[in-house]
Amino acid sequence: MVKNNNESTIRSNNSNMKKENKKNDRSYERVFMNNKMYEQNNFHYLNEAPKNGRMLKPIVQEKIIEVMKPEIQEKIIEVPQVQYVEKIVEVPQVVLQEKLIHVPKPVIHERIKKLSKTVFKEKIVEVPQIKVVDKVVEVPQYVYEEKIIQVPKV
């Protein structure tokens, strides 16, 4: 197995994270990953044939990577309940009582007295109205003039 400098730094970082989260030690799961690495000198493409006629074996490197795993925690929260307490308070009650009080009041007596009253009645009577109109009428006047005529004697 080939060790890498990166692996030691990953482990130191993960140990620091574990120290921070002591409560959640189970929240990390280790995942193993296989990485196939070829030597840089003997790397070849699929179309090329190896020089000595045999396939190169891949170098397998293991890395331990710690991944956070969500953990569900149950938390119990108490909900306050409303409690009713009976409290008896004495309240004074109002009682209505009727009390008769005699108050002197002036008494009014009515006397009927008859008085004579003059009543005027209006009566409308139509009276013909006299209207004077001047009417001009021409009346012939005879004026006699005396005229002397001499008549011969016969």
Structural class: alpha+beta
Strand content: 5-15%
Q: For the largest sheet, list the strands in their spatial order.
A: 1-2
The biggest sheet, with number of strands, parallel, antiparallel or mixed sense and barrel status, is:
2 strands, antiparallel
Estimated helix fraction: 10-25%
Distance between the termini: 212 Å
| Tally of helical runs | 1
Tally of DSSP β-strands: 2
Essential attributes:
single chain, 154 residues, alpha+beta, two-stranded antiparallel sheet, 1 helix, 2 strands, 10% helix, disordered N terminus
Task: Report on the architecture of this protein.
This protein has 154 residues and is α+β, with helices and mostly antiparallel strands. The protein has a domain at 5-44 and 51-68. Helices cover 10% and strands 13% of the residues. The protein is built from 1 helix and 2 strands; from the N terminus they run H-E-E. It has one helix spanning 5-20, and strands at 28-37, 59-68. A two-stranded antiparallel sheet has the order 1-2.
Provide a quick synopsis of the model.
With 154 residues, this protein is an alpha+beta fold. The chain has one helix at 5-20; strands at residues 28-37, 59-68. Residues 1-7 and 21-47 have low confidence and may be disordered.
Helices, strands, pairings?
Blueprint: H1 5-20, E1 28-37, E2 59-68
Antiparallel strand pairs: 1-2
